[in-house]
């Protein structure tokens, strides 16, 4: 069974999203193994560049007092010439249109630099000289002001959409690293804890946990979480002798997590099993619904190990993914649904019926077709034809049970699989209810002309293995016989058809 284009697109989008999320998490974890901010930044872009397959990744930081921007960090793939030495004191007017785009809340995405040859010749010549074919660039914002940009030269064209989706997250992480670097310059002593605080921007809470002692720093915790817990964290960020992460996190789960997911959540935050679960992993995560903001994702990220490979510290982070879940569910809905009628589309409906057949769930497959639909379109117009399709779909959904699979095959053709409907008399009663509901359809433009349908059905007893196509062919033969009759009619497949 072939998947429809929307399902394939959704699957590809989800795969790309998962890929970049994993790469970012792995890059962050790898960067945190280095001691200085410069080392962390270089490791982050190196790791990210190698794993996405680009030619060059770079960071530019603006010096607005001189109206120039400097290439401060760079990673190049093997064989790619470094440009960082030549890209110092770059006049910001050269790429003013980039900054104008950033100010509009957008990133730069050039899939083919030949497209900008006429309008932005200076930028074109600069990129051409660097052997750039395509490029994605996002702004770096600090305190709502653009302070530079982060660019990826020649990323895989297949991942453009996914890369663009994660640009803001990557930019946030990079600006956090840059802030950390600035703090490090001022005070090495305060830099380590500041790093986690800076990187916590995308999270609703973050804890630095000593796995061996169970003591912890509260790096970040939103006011909403503090209020939910009902505790006064006056010493946020400070170790206390009595600190017990196990008790603290269990309390958080009990108060924040919905009851149906509480046990699984407690198992996820169990420190006693954490080292084993993180073995060979860059991070582990768990999605749950909390009482504050809806869907959330909690994550453990290993920070460091001792010389014997024993896990010492982890970051425990929580982030709100409610909007992400809404987008995901919307994509899934669009991939599975016929947008005109709200029924299952052919791909998702056939998939669900096939699953029932594999489970040897007996039932009846019905094919439904509007009689003389072409004549309706020709006489009254396609807009009226669409109204007929929507009306028939509504009546079909109304007549069927919640357990029935109802789908639009295409055009004026529908199908429904009714599990456990195996008796002819029961099926015939269903046909009569459907016909009665169809007769109630009144399309104003058709001036009282009634809608008529033909129905072909076949039974599956659930004993022998059978495919959707096999049932479809039988129901289609019955449909052919039904078409020969006048008015709303139904024929059940029998021997000799």
Please explain how this structure is put together.
- With 497 residues, the chain is α+β, with helices and mostly antiparallel strands.
- It has three domains: 5-177, GAF domain (Beta-Lactamase, 2-Layer Sandwich); 203-326, Beta-Lactamase, CATH 3.30.450; 340-492, Reverse transcriptase/Diguanylate cyclase domain (Alpha-Beta Plaits).
- 43% of the residues lie in helices and 23% in strands.
- It is built from 16 helices and 16 strands.
- The chain has helices at 5-31, 37-52, 96-103, 121-129, 160-186, 188-199, 223-229, 245-256, 262-268, 274-277, 322-336, 346-358, 373-380, 382-399, 424-439, 468-482, and strands at residues 56-63, 68-76, 90-91, 108-110, 135-142, 145-153, 205-210, 216-221, 284-290, 294-305, 311-320, 363-370, 405-410, 413-419, 453-460, 489-492.
- The strands form three sheets. It has a six-stranded antiparallel β-sheet, sandwiched between helices. A five-stranded antiparallel β-sheet has the order 8-7-11-10-9. Strands 13-14-12-15-16 form a five-stranded mixed β-sheet, with helices on both faces.
- Helix 1 packs parallel to helix 5 (160-186) and helix 2 (37-52) packs antiparallel against helix 5 (160-186).
- The radius of gyration is 31 Å and the shape is extended.
- Mean pLDDT is 84; it is low at 234-242.
């Amino acid at each position: 069974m072939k998947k429809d284009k929307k399902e394939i697109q959704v699957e590809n989008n989800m795969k790309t999203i998962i890929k970049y999320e994993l790469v970012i998490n792995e890059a962050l974890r790898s960067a945190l193994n280095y001691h200085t901010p410069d080392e962390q930044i270089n490791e982050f872009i190196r790791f990210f560049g190698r794993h996405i397959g680009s030619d060059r990744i770079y960071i530019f930081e603006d010096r607005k007092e001189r109206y120039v921007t400097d290439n401060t960090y760079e990673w190049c793939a093997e064989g790619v010439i470094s440009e960082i030495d030549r890209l110092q004191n770059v006049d910001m007017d050269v790429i003013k249109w980039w900054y104008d785009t950033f100010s509009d809340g957008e990133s730069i995405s050039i899939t083919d630099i030949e497209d900008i040859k006429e309008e932005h010749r200076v930028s074109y010549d600069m990129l051409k000289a660097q052997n750039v074919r395509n490029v994605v660039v996002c702004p770096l914002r600090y305190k709502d002001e653009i302070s530079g940009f982060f660019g990826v030269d020649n990323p895989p064209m297949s991942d453009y959409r996914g890369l663009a989706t994660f640009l803001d997250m990557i930019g946030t992480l990079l600006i956090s690293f840059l802030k950390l670097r600035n703090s490090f310059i001022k005070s090495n002593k305060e830099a380590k804890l500041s790093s986690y605080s800076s990187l916590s921007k995308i999270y609703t809470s973050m804890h630095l946990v000593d796995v061996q002692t169970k003591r912890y720093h509260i790096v970040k915790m939103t006011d909403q979480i503090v209020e939910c817990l009902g505790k006064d964290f006056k010493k946020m960020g400070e170790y206390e002798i009595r600190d017990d992460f196990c008790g603290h996190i269990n309390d958080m789960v009990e108060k924040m997590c919905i009851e149906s997911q509480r046990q699984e959540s407690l198992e996820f935050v169990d420190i006693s099993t954490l080292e084993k679960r993180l073995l060979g992993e860059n991070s582990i995560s768990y999605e749950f619904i909390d009482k504050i903001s809806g869907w959330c994702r909690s994550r453990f990220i290993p920070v460091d190990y001792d010389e014997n490979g024993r896990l010492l510290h982890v970051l425990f982070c929580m982030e709100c993914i409610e909007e992400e879940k809404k987008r995901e569910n919307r994509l899934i809905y669009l991939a599975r649904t016929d947008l005109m009628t709200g029924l299952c589309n052919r791909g998702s409906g056939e998939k669900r019926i096939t699953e029932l057949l594999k489970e040897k769930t007996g039932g009846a497959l019905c094919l439904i077709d509007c009689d003389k639909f072409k004549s309706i379109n020709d006489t009254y117009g396609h807009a009226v034809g669409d109204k007929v399709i929507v009306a028939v779909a509504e009546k079909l959904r109304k007549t069927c049970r919640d357990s029935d699979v109802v789908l639009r095959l295409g055009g004026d053709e529908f199908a429904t699989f009714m599990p456990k409907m195996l008796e002819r008399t029961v099926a015939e009663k269903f046909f009569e209810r459907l016909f009665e509901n169809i007769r109630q359809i009144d399309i104003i433009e058709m001036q009282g002309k009634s809608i008529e349908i033909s129905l072909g059905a076949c039974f599956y007893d659930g004993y022998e293995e059978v495919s959707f196509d096999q049932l479809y062919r039988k129901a289609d033969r019955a449909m052919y016989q039904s078409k020969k009759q006048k008015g709303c009619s139904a024929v059940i497949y029998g021997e000799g058809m």
